[in-house]
């Protein structure tokens, strides 16, 4: 089966084509995923998510691009997003630890957190949603764009405006 026919059969939801993709590429994807050092998820988790995303986004496949390149790109993006998210969490945890070491009085932290959420709640609904997805749930612009059907440029603009608003509110208090 040539690349174009194979991709078209995937796009049409052909189970045999998915089975063939899974069996043909599982080992290759595992060897890619094993190159990364994960603290929470296993390489198998990433492969599972890769094939899940392949299935859920199959209509976005391009018949003019080699299937393996598209599949490897999906896997690579999932891994990179996770590694970036994991690094943010580690940085946040170490910052939180340093903060708690310096000031064991958590009421200051809680007051600041409450003010921040109050400022976020003052944002227009769309900005609030996008800011929360990006800053608090660590989703990328691309992931938010997929969830909201907005362009990445629009997402970036909402985050910029929301950040500017919150910074101004913090400066005023």
Automatic annotation (TrEMBL):
NCBIfam families: sigma70-ECF (TIGR02937)
Every RNA polymerase sigma-70 region domain range: 22-87
The entry's keywords: Sigma factor, Transcription, Transcription regulation
Keyword field contains Transcription regulation: yes
Lineage, opening ranks: Bacteria, Pseudomonadati, Bacteroidota, Flavobacteriia, Flavobacteriales
Domain RNA polymerase sigma factor 70 region 4 type: 114-164
Database matches in PANTHER family: RNA POLYMERASE ECF-TYPE SIGMA FACTO, RNA POLYMERASE SIGMA-70 FACTOR ECF SUBFAMILY
GO molecular function per UniProt: DNA binding; sigma factor activity
Family the entry assigns: Belongs to the sigma-70 factor family. ECF subfamily.
Protein name, per record: RNA polymerase subunit sigma-24
Lineage top rank: taxon: Bacteria
An example Gene Ontology biological process: DNA-templated transcription initiation
